[in-house]
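Hi R.,

Here are the chain sequences for the assembly we discussed:
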Amino acid sequence: MSLWRQLTRGLRVLTNRVAADCELAEELKDYFEQATASFEASGLTAEEARRAARLEIGNAMLVREQVRAYGWENLIETLLADLRYAARQLRNNPSFAATAMLILGLGIGATTAIFSAVSPILFQPLPYPHSDRVMMIFEQRDGGSRLPSFGTYEGLSERSHSFDAMAVMKPWQPAMVGIGEPELFEGQRVSAAYFRALGVFPALGRDFQAADDLVNGPNVVILSNRLWHRRFAADSQIVGRHITLENSSSQLAPSNSFTVIGVMPRDFENVLAPSAELWAPLQYDPSLPPDSREWGHHLRMVTRLQPGVTKEQAKSELDALLPPFGKAHAKGFESAGGIPTGVIVTSLHDHITGDVKPALLAILGAVILVLLIASVNVTNLLLARGAQRRGEFAVRAALGAGQKRLLRQLVTESLLLAMLGGTFGIAVAMLGVRALVALSPPGLPRVDAIRVDGAMLIFALGITTCIGLLVALTPALHASRNDPHEGLQQSSRRSSREHQLVRRSLVVSEVALALVLLVSAGLLLRSLERLFSVDPGFDASHIVTMQVQESGNRYAHDDARARFFEQTLEKVRHLPGITSAAFVSQLPLSGDYEVYGIEFEAYPHDDEAAFRYAVSPDYFKTMRIPLRRGRLLDEEDRSGAPVAVLISESLAKRKFHDRDPIGQRVRMGPNMGHADKPWATIVGVVGDVKQLSLAVNDAEAFYTTPGQWEWVDNTQSVVVRAKGNAASLASWVRDAIWSVDKDLPVVRIATMHSLLAQTEAQRRFALIIFEAFALVALVLAATGIYGVLSGSVTERMREIGVRAALGASRESIVRLVVRQGMTLTTCGVAIGLLGAAAASQAIVAMLFGVSPLDPMTYGGVIVLLGGVSLLACAIPAWRASQVDPAITLRAE
Amino acid sequence: MDETNTDVIQGTLDMLILKTLSLEPMHGFGIARRVEQISRGVFKVNPGSLLTALQRLERAGWLDSEWRQTENSRHAKFYALTRAGKKQLELETADWNRRASAIARLLKAEV
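And here is the predicted structure of the full complex:
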């Protein structure tokens, strides 16, 4: 009941303060009249009675105030008044409000966005139960690591006792054909325990069982939730249905009909192959026939440790098991370079994030710098404002405002500012996260898991708010501690020296931080420039490429397949606007990676491994790969003719030194080491080509025509050189391929230029972010310098006026101000140089062809920073030079 | 310094108001005079504290108020004790008696 009264009465007062005041005034007046009447009744005159009554009541206004102050509604009223006042303060000072909001918003938003993007990759555990027990296993030999074979997996899983589950996997690209444009799916062939190793199970239907994973076992498939929704309208009866898939990876698929046995849960994140949408059993032969795909080292192995078993224990167990097993199956390890000496055990998390970690950590470092600069800047702004408002607070304190009341006012103002900045920051963070996902390099793990990180948002908001509160409270404490008289006197003349000192050191640190960011961005920029000036070994202009996948048993024989590719090439070649066209088994800089062994007759027992290309003869002309010696491949090098081989310049140089390689004989790939197989002859040497990335120097390669290789590759890329714009030809080329066979998936349509750019996407991603941050830092630092100088000019107006009156020239006054600004810059640069030298060591992994102490970069950045600070000095300096001594002195 | 202290003992103003109103409904000035008279001038009530206390007691649900005519046909705000107020008065009286007698005993023991 009383609570109810508290609430209703309070609300009544809140909604109608005037009525409540009137009632109180009425009651008091009444009191006064009754008191007067009673004094009169006791014999005083009317005048004396009124005086006595007034004496008894005291100051009527104070009484009213005392009564009014009671009740919770007063707190709200004060808060509203404070808010109104704070809003008015900000409105009256739009440039301050806008700057503070912008800095806060950008600082908070950028930090949150970046942190949100990197946190699922760097800091969060993988989305699997006990994900710390999920390990990747590789074979180890001579300190290097290599992929295991099915044989290795069989051998280890039969003998080891450290694991709950072990599984191997390989990529799989089945096509769904017949309906509309053929669609190619990304998928995986996995051994039965794959999902058990990850610890995630189908939401619908069942998991794979050992019985599914047998040679010629049943054709079963598990779908991703996304595919289930997209292609099958989330049909709850999907389990048991048959779907038709053409299976490009298994040469012997007896049937194209697959039974759906399960659907994965919606939140299943398959970090090992993020784009995979369906899974089928691997179905390799556990009897391990020699010289078979079972001994190809092309599988990835993922395992789940038993509870309580450490990574090191598992490693030492496998280290003991693998070498003896390898000796027993020595033939299986021949093609891979010999029996492994042990294993490498890596957590899945490290395996996934290892590649991108340096870039992400560098970016995280950059964003922390930006947050620091933003905080410093806000501090500076608030300090400047506090100094300006000392007078105001002195006046308010002198008029009787209590310290608590002043503090509350300031806290309200800071919180309002923080709230506005925070709101802006949230918007920036949301946009930023979207932009980052859009900009992110291909292959960035866990992109799907990136979303605005609430905890980080609160953290950034909290930090900036705390700084704001702390800084904002200083002037109030000053005002209440100091004698108001002194504050009133000082208010119009000068702010205290200590504030200036703090603000100056803040600006120095801002300049230093900006320099660190600028140098990092500069080094990355120079690295990227260096990289793109690296010669890829071919001419990327005017080339469009796409990949054709001949799926499954469509063309049962190599002859039929070869005929298909020949026909297709013929069609493409006759398109208008095309100079030349060719097929290649692996496209440079596309992510393809195919290495085979090569044995030289002249150097027995000294085999090499190199990139293997099967190319139609026009490939070199189309890509403009130069011929160094001998001849190129031609139409005569067809199936049945003596095998002709081209080798790359660097392979020729390393193997033959100054001798002529032409006419030397080799055996390649599966023919290696088989004395009964014929030798192939080296007919020419061609220029080196970058296959993996511009930064990697690994250009040893050999080339044959498709007809003279052991088999005809079922996946080939067509490269087309156009007379004009290559990209515009893409759809013509695709239609030409489909005119030969309309059911073949055509994928990876791209210009060679875009492939080239993509290989450096990670560096470019880092560069874009560093450039953006460096720009923000530069602007903030310039604002800082400007703010300090402009404040100092305002405060020294009188001194400058006196100087001018005493005959100082305009130039000397300008010099005075500029010198003050440039001193700050110089200090900042000196400190920043040390910081940059340290920071550049952190990004050394991302640099290419540039020393972390590259003098050009450092010099350029110093000049840039110097120029910008000069600009920042210019306005205050000009204002100082315009000071009219007469006016300033009169104002005194 | 020579003036006798006429302040109401801290914390007892509420009790004094409730007690006064337990006799009959009254307006603010009436309460002040009644306290003064009955205490024979020992306590004087400050109008600011009185009006604040009246608001507080009303919000607590111990008093009701209404505007009506006084005997000399003036318009005044009258306060009346509610049932909850009566109970509160009993509680506070009992509490006060307990404490007062304890203090009295202590002071006696001193002598």
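The radius of gyration of chain A is 39 Å. DSSP finds 26 helices and 24 strands in chain A.

Let me know if anything looks off.

Best,
T.
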